[in-house]
Structures are given as structure tokens and as C-alpha cells.
Write a structure and sequence with these properties.
Deoxyribonuclease I, Chain A, 27% strand, globular, DNA-binding
DNA sequence: ATGACTTGCGCGGCAAGA
């Protein structure tokens, strides 16, 4: 079972790259973030033509998440815990897997900058809601992958200039503390289960030659429940995607789980 | 160096991203 996640930074700008990725990597499940469009504008026909089922939670201009799956899926949109939250940042699916299922949560966690703003308050509140929801899901004791753009740099080895990012909403102590609380519920950070290496980046800014200088961040993650972590075979960051024409500023990251 | 990039919206420059 191959599960991938990719912040595409506008799915309409990335449709050709997305189709090419599906053909080359053939993920069983692909989670997408930052669609930047409503469901009606999503390139559904192009994706379905590749043999994928599509579940979209869209929003005009901002945010937007989707789950693509080779097999039909049951889905629910929205992160519980705040009925007044109208930002499209979470969608969940139940994917058939042999005699059992895989549950997949696809998330686009708020950026939160600057730290002294209501945006940061929203980020922290969103992380609290995610923790509460994740705790409920873990109690099901299923194979579960919680993945997406977390907008969290877990550790100094995950950023090219830790000191320079100390007060950024992606790396601030409170942000990292809440991420650790989430992990402590019982998740395995898939990448960290296979390597302790630094510079395992998934994002490079478009500006100031960040890609050329390898000034990156590790902010896209796949968190595994114990039942999923038991089946972990490999983790791959599709770094080469950043060097292609018209790239997203994020690259896909994926896991292979033993069938 | 008023720098530097890419989106959406919509047609002129903002807002947002990270």
C-alpha cells in the first residue's frame, strides 16, 4: 500500500505534473493540499481518466484538500471541533485494504504567521482540534495515516537556518510543543522511523534561490498509528519534482506499507 | 537594492504563502 501526500500550490496549475506523478509513482492513495479552487473547478475528469477516485473539499482562492484513491473510498470533510471554521483544511477517507481498511486523514495545517496575531491563535487552536480528533481515531486501533502539510518544522535538523527561523510560526517553541503532543498520543513520524539525517526537506521557497542553495524545510509529514507503523517498509521524498518546470514549492513524500 | 517568486482575482496591484 503506497500512500503519498503533496501540497500542489494550486491544483489547476499543477494538473499536468499531477497526472505525470500518478503515472510514474502509481500511489494507491494521494493526499493533496492547497488546491486553491472550489470542487467544481477541480480537474476531476483528468484524474479519473488515470483510474483514480476523487474526493474534494474545496474552497475559493485559498486552502482546499483532496484524496485520490485507486479504490472507491468513503470520505468525510472538515476537522471536528469548531462549527464556525469555514477553511477547507481537512478531509478523511476509509480505504479498503484486503480484509481490513486503511484510514487516511489529509490535512493542511494553518501557517500561522506572524506569531503575534490571530492567525497564530488559529493555528494553535487548530492543532488542539487535530490532537483531539487524532486521539479519537487512534482509539479505533486501525491502520491509520495522518498526513499532509503540517506547517511544522519538528527539529533544528529540519530547517536550513534554525536561528533565523526561531520566531517563525513554523518553528516557534509552542508550535513544536503541540506537534510533540500529537506524536506522543502514539504516532510514528514515518521519515524519522527510517533516518536521523538532516536536510530531509519537503519545501523550498520560490524566492532568493532557495532551491539552488538547498535552503529548505521539512514540513510535510506522514504520521502512522501503531498498526500502520508495524507495516512500514520505506519512506521516499520525491525531491526531483522541485527541479522540474513549473514546480510546486513543496514536493511529495510517501510511504510504502507492507500488504 | 524600494530586490529577489508564485498563486488567485480580475485587469491594478494586493493578499497570502512559508
Amino acid at each position: 500500500m503506497r500512500v503519498a501526500t503533496w501540497n500542489v500550490n494550486s491544483v489547476r496549475q499543477r494538473t499536468q505534473a499531477l497526472v505525470a506523478y500518478l503515472r510514474e509513482v502509481k500511489p494507491d492513495v494521494l493526499c493533496l493540499q492547497e488546491l486553491k479552487c472550489v470542487e467544481e473547478a477541480f480537474p476531476r475528469l483528468e484524474i479519473e481518466a488515470e483510474g483514480y477516485n476523487v474526493a474534494v473539499h474545496g474552497q475559493k482562492t485559498y486552502n482546499g484538500v483532496a484524496i485520490l484513491s485507486k479504490t472507491p473510498i468513503e470520505t468525510s470533510a472538515g476537522l471536528p471541533g469548531d462549527d464556525g471554521d469555514d477553511q477547507a483544511r481537512y478531509i478523511e477517507a476509509i480505504v479498503p485494504w484486503g480484509k481490513t481498511v486503511l484510514r487516511v486523514g489529509c490535512l493542511y495545517l494553518p501557517n500561522g504567521n506572524p506569531v503575534s496575531s490571530d492567525k497564530y491563535d488559529y493555528k494553535l487552536a487548530w492543532m488542539d482540534r487535530l490532537k483531539a480528533h487524532a486521539k479519537k481515531l487512534l482509539a479505533y486501533e486501525e491502520r491509520l495515516v495522518l498526513c499532509g502539510d503540517f506547517n511544522v518544522i519538528p527539529d533544528a535538523r529540519d530547517v536550513y537556518d534554525p536561528a533565523g527561523w526561531a520566531n517563525d510560526a513554523l518553528f516557534a517553541p509552542k508550535t513544536r510543543e503541540k506537534f510533540r503532543e500529537l506524536l506522543a498520543l502514539g504516532f510514528t513520524d514515518a521519515l524519522r522511523a527510517v533516518t536521523d539525517a538532516d536536510k530531509q526537506y519537503t519545501f523550498w521557497d520560490y524566492q532568493a534561490g532557495a532551491w539552488q542553495k538547498n535552503n529548505g524545510l521539512r514540513i510535510d509529514h506522514l504520521l502512522l498509528s501503531p498498526q500502520a507503523a508495524d507495516r512500514l517498509q520505506s519512506v521516499t521524498i520525491d525531491r526531483d519534482m522541485r527541479a522540474k518546470d513549473k514546480p510546486s514549492d513543496h514536493v511529495p513524500i510517501r510511504v510504502d506499507l507492507k500488504d
